[in-house]
Amino acid sequence: MIDREKVLAVLNKRFPEAGRENVAAAANAIVGLEDEWEEVEVRLAQQAESGDGFKLYRRRTARG
Question: pTM of whole model > 0.90?
Answer without folding.
Answer: no
